[in-house]
Amino acid sequence: MPQDDTSTNELQSPAPLHTTPSTLEIRINPASGRSCYATRTVPAGYTVLAARSPYAYTIWKPFRNEVCAECWRYDQGNRSFLTRRDDEGLEEERKGPVAVKENGRGEKTGAGLWFCDAECQASWLAREGRQMVDLLRTLEGARRAGKTMIEVSDRQDEATKLTKEAIEHTWDTVRQEERSPKVVRRWRENSLNDFETDLARYILLALAHFAREYTSSMASLQQTQELACPRNDTLPGLNGECQWDTFASLQCNELQYLRTYPELLENHIRIYKALKSRFMPAALSDRTPGRIDRPVIDVLASLITVGNVRTALGIDPGNSFGIWEAPLTEESECLGFAVYPGLSFFNHHCAPNVRKERDGRALRFVTTREVGEGEELCISYGQVEGMTWRERRKELSDGWFFDCACGRCIADIAAEMQAQQLST
Ligand SMILES: C[S@@+](CC[C@H](N)C(=O)[O-])C[C@H]1O[C@@H](n2cnc3c(N)ncnc32)[C@H](O)[C@@H]1O
Question: Any idea where the SET domain is (predicted)?
Fold first, then answer.
């Protein structure tokens, strides 16, 4: 999983969480794809873009009961500040039967949400809706008992690399299988390990947001809409808060990622099967509480397609930001990852002019120096600034699957070539 150095440690005087769309525009950089450019001179310390909340995210299971699901506060494993769980304390307001399930050991399955207090809980519920708690709880029912950490093995050699055709063929087989409702029902018997369940939570959040956007636009427009995603060359609106169309237009790194970690294809398929089978309307009808909104569930079920799940899985590597324990040190824990679609059009530079500032679940991008009109606005994807160009390239190629074409690398390579020519 690519990681980055997002942290609050650089936060001195928090800039306002406003977005300033007129400050930047997205254009194509021939060497690195879509990229953000300043439309006017921007002073140092200026927030060029911000998002209050990610479109989709996950907190890794080992940290789930140590991190507030709303403000992402983490206190080195101390849990005493977390006083509320899931929708605890709100039971009396429920319309239907309580959606608590039991696992094989007779323990209650929760939704995996812990909050500092009623205020954090209320903020989360106001944004995500109470039915999201039930959806997460339903998904948690698929989690295999026992402890499984992230399972990513060492890189494979060339001979074992997956091809695009092999990936397509594998997914086509899944598409064939799912034609039979009986087969899909059987998929419900499969359980997921922790890594798979955590990735499935991220996908579920994204698709639940999509379903909500879709149903509300249906309600307001009262006309049929096209569910298909926009093409990959779409230039999105410049707003830190985004919808599915911007999310789905992010660069997909499925092939590069699976070629590096081929065994993950199996995890991806298990995740898809769990989502598909557990959120079938029929599967939910006998289990979910009265407050789950049927139209949203029906739309959600229809959005759990091979295409949409692959989109979400392919976006994670290369676009997600690590949620790092702050302040950032060598020992900081990576608590999870989050995708903020509006912020994913910033390219990497080995001498960046924009820094990331995480403030709770909000992320803002702030200039580190004055940036001239027309200049590219770039962040650093990792902590590579102190490395040689060869080290930087390796780090970026290994973690982010691209050969860096930033101005600093081009200049460093050119200087080395010139020095070599002079010495011969
Ligand atoms: C988060 S996306 C940035 C937006 C992307 N350019 C696009 O068109 O969607 C990261 C991807 O942008 C490209 N990229 C970013 N910085 C780059 C750089 N310095 N050199 C080459 N490619 C870069 C790589 O393909 C990388 O995987």
Answer: 22-382
- Angstrom distance (rounded) from CA 342 to CA 345: 7
- 255, 346, 347, best to mutate for ligand 1 pocket (most atoms within 8 Å of CB): 347
| Ligand 1 atom closest to Cα of residue 346 | 3
Distance 9 CA to ligand 1 centre (A): 25
Angle between helices 130-140 and 264-278 (to 10 degrees): 120
Please, how many CA atoms are within 13 Å of residue 123, restricted to the half-sphere of its CB? 15
May I ask the CATH class of domain 21-51+343-423? mainly beta
- Do strands 347-348 and 376-379 pair parallel, antiparallel, or not at all (unpaired)? parallel
* Residues with C-beta less than 6 Å from any ligand 1 atom: 31-35, 250-251, 318-319, 344-345, 347-348, 400-402, 404-406
This prediction has a pTM of 0.86
Q: What is the pLDDT of residues 22-68, one digit of tens each?
A: 799 999 999 999 999 999 999 999 999 999 999 999 999 999 999 99
| Alpha helices (runs of H) in 150-193, residue ranges in sequence order | 164-177, 181-187
Q: Where are the domains of the chain?
A: 21-51+343-423, 56-319
What is the C-alpha separation between 89 and 395, in angstroms, rounded? 47
In this structure, the number of other CB atoms found within 10 A of the CB of residue 418 comes to 10
Per-residue model confidence as pLDDT tens digits over 217-233: 877 665 544 444 333 33
Integer CA distances (angstroms), 235 to 28, 231, 275, 309, 374, in order: 9, 9, 30, 22, 17
3-class secondary-structure state, position 88:
coil
